Amino acid sequence: MGPRFATIDVGTNSVLLLVAERAPDGSFRAVDERMEITRLGKGVDRTRVLDPASVDATVEAIRTFAEAARAAGAAKLVVTATSAARDATNGEAFFEKAEAACGVRPEVLSGDLEAALSYASARHDFGSAAGSLAVVDIGGGSTELVYGSGSEVSFRRSFDVGAVRLTERWLRADPPSPSELAALREDLTRTLAAAPPPPADSALVGIAGTVTTLCALHLGLSAYDGRLVHGQRLRAVDVRALADRLGRLPLAERKALPGLPPSAPT
């Protein structure tokens, strides 16, 4: 068995654990992957303050994941935090609780660094099969867009639009009303207008929970399986059909769909 390392990624919507084993050739093999939806960023777009109940749930998930990582033999644990932690004025109190729970202080990733890491990940798995890449990382609080070819990045930016942030800004009815959905799309279109169009020959690579959940829904998976989702192709017409379907369903029916975690705050 090679050395093992672990990361805990604290996002706006969920907490992710990855424990990976390093092979002699330097590659990594996942040995444990877990997700817990804690919605740390609940209300942060409006208040700029982390919700106490969400903090407690997130800290407990960090504690549980850190214990699992060490039980799996991880020699090193890294904890990172992204959009919600960047924006909140009371982030320091959360960091102290998280450090007390797992022994590691979370490192806050800037939007620029988050975008760079997203591109590096996509390039590692898909760069050899395509010329240029257009990478989109849709999180709960932010969305990163990166264009590049090989190691050269031509555009990189993090935008303050994500699944949780836009839901809280615009969606009130259940299911969302046409006017609410139109306002959300207008906000998103206005924000992303700052990004240039990707190179015409780019392969579009989507990463993170929103994209993988859409893929799981498209496949109708009764239980999420990363091996089936990773590298799967989604056509634009498929994404539009999913968006239209989800936008018409009440919350209870959305949560019952195969491929969507029942605890997802959709």
TrEMBL record:
Residues 24-260 form the Ppx/GppA phosphatase N-terminal domain. One of its GO terms (molecular function) is pyrophosphatase activity. Pfam families: Ppx-GppA. It comes from the Bacteria. InterPro entries: ATPase_NBD, GppA/Ppx_hydrolase, Ppx_GppA_N. Transmembrane segments: none annotated. This is Exopolyphosphatase.
